[in-house]
Amino acid sequence: MSGLAKFFVVINFVLALLFLGVSATLFQSQKDWKGAAETAVENAEETVAMAEKMKETLQGVVDEKSRNNESLTREKEQLSSSILTLQNSNGDLRKSVAQLGTKIDDLDSRIAQKDEHIQDKDSNIARLEEEISRLSTEIDSAGDAKKLAERLRNRALLDKEQLAQQTEALNKELTALKEDYDDQQLLISRIVDSGIRLPDIGVTTAPPIDGMVVGVQEGVVVLSVGKDDNVEIGYEFTIYDGNRFIGKVQVTKVLDDMSGCTILFQEDSGIREGHKASTRLSS
Known about the structure:
Layout: H1 3-29, H2 33-193, E1 210-217, E2 220-223, E3 236-241, E4 244-254, E5 259-266, E6 276-278
Antiparallel strand pairs: 1-2, 1-6, 2-5, 3-4, 3-6, 4-5
């Protein structure tokens, strides 16, 4: 039973009790029943009117409550929908949080790996810096060595140029000596052919002198000994490769530290730079 029905039942019960009370009073006082009945009817009508007004008021309240109830029901449904949406969102957020946690763990692992890589790189950088320092020192040393080598090279080029000039002068002198030698040989041949016996000429007895062949060019042999070693024009030097006889040369030009020679004879292998030269015969 609804609250409104219960209210009306109570009102009817109250009115019935009121009517019974009035009727009992009339019977007890034995007054004018008709007037009393009319008065009671009027009172009952007023009571009914009041009850109707109260009913209308209550009906308005009930209607307002019903509307409020419907509104609250809609709000409840909306709230339920919102709660469901929030629950779904909460579930999605929990999933997102779990995914973010996984990503954070992955990032932490990557950061740890990066830290290890950075430490390795720092170690490599330190090693490379040490290597660069060592190479810089070597480069400085190499630069000094290069400067020394350039000085030696320039000196060698100057010595080579001087030697070339000296060789050219020796070649010119050798050419002249060859012409004189050929003329003398021709003269000797003519003298010999004429029957005249001549003593050995053109050979000067030399003291023991040891040297080395430092150059061979166009039939001219350059030895590493000269005036400083008591070499004189006409001295004969025997050429050796180790202990093997190679040939024989005669001094035709003497400088302070070298001398130029003509080849008297040589083996098929020929006289080359680096062979030993000596005025003494090797046993």
